[in-house]
Amino acid sequence: MNVVGQTAEHLPSRGVGAGPPAIELRDLHKTFGSVNAVRGVDLRIDAGQVVAFLGPNGAGKTSTIDMVLGLSEPTSGSVSVYGLSPRDAVRKGLVSAVMQTGGLVKDFTVAETVRYVAHLFASSQPAQEVMERAGIDAIGDRLVGKCSGGEQQRLRFAIALLPDPDLLLLDEPTQGMDVEGRRSFWAAIRHDADQGRTVVFATHYLEEADAYADRVVLIRKGEIVADGTAAQVKALASGRTVRATLPDADEASLSAIGGVDSVEVRGDSVVVHCSDSDAVARHLLTRTDACDLEIAALGLEEAFIALTGDGGADNLSEGRFR
């Protein structure tokens, strides 16, 4: 599915801090019967940011994105896109969305698909140009039905670029792409962001969020539990990992150290998950023959699990970043 506007009239000037925020959510709620899908979300995303919107299945990501696109109405609270209602922003061509499935006719070629959609706009970017930017110009004569999942996703990306949107919403944008395709895709996204385009994406490839997002927003059970740079979000999840070379490690004595959550013995190496890495390191270096000691903070994947799993709120070391 691609959500696109019908005119190329753009109100905001691109660039971080220029004009109204790209997205502003205030006390946003969405209920479905007795289910509270979104519960009091407050979020401001300024123009020109690349934001990863992450959460487990059922966290409220899709419900929130649907309201930003004007596909559903909030139960309460407000949504604005560049100071407009979501539907007005879409009609003015300010917003495009790339979803995982749907929206493609399998009996058209890639080039026919792009040219056909381009004709739906009063003004659009040249079809050949968006195909080149999406990395599909070499397969223009291929039937869509013969394209791989990654190629179809890049085709959706090309279509989303046609109205030259100021805000691009991406749902699992690199699903099905190979490593080179993912690298090329993110190079194009970073180039667009440098020109002032705002990008909000949801992905299960957490290393992509870590590497490419200016900001990471974690949502759990309809509420935002973390909001900041990838480094800040990782710091919110308390805990460190201490690794060392230690043949015949005494797992019981290591587990007895204060602040130790778990101990893993892997051959001649030991991995200690803990909240007090200094105490563990001191023990290993003064009371054992451990060497090659390394202390590492949690990665984004571990932070994601800690902050969005059951009891996630209890794993916050401090408040949310802003």
Could you characterize the architecture of this molecule?
The protein has 322 residues and is α/β, with parallel strands linked by helices. It folds into two domains: 23-234, 3-Layer(aba) Sandwich (Rossmann fold); 240-297, Alpha-Beta Plaits, CATH 3.30.70. 31% of the residues lie in helices and 26% in strands. The chain contains eleven helices and 13 strands. The protein has helices spanning 61-68, 86-91, 110-118, 127-134, 149-161, 179-194, 206-212, 230-236, 251-255, 277-287, 300-308; strands at 23-32, 35-45, 50-54, 76-81, 95-98, 167-171, 198-202, 215-220, 223-228, 240-245, 260-266, 269-274, 291-297. It has a six-stranded mixed sheet. A four-stranded antiparallel sheet has the order 11-12-10-13. Strands 2-1-4 form a three-stranded antiparallel sheet, with helices on one face. Helix 4 (127-134) crosses helix 5 (149-161) and helix 8 crosses helix 11 (300-308). It is globular. The protein starts with 22 loop residues before the first strand and ends in a 14-residue tail after the last helix.
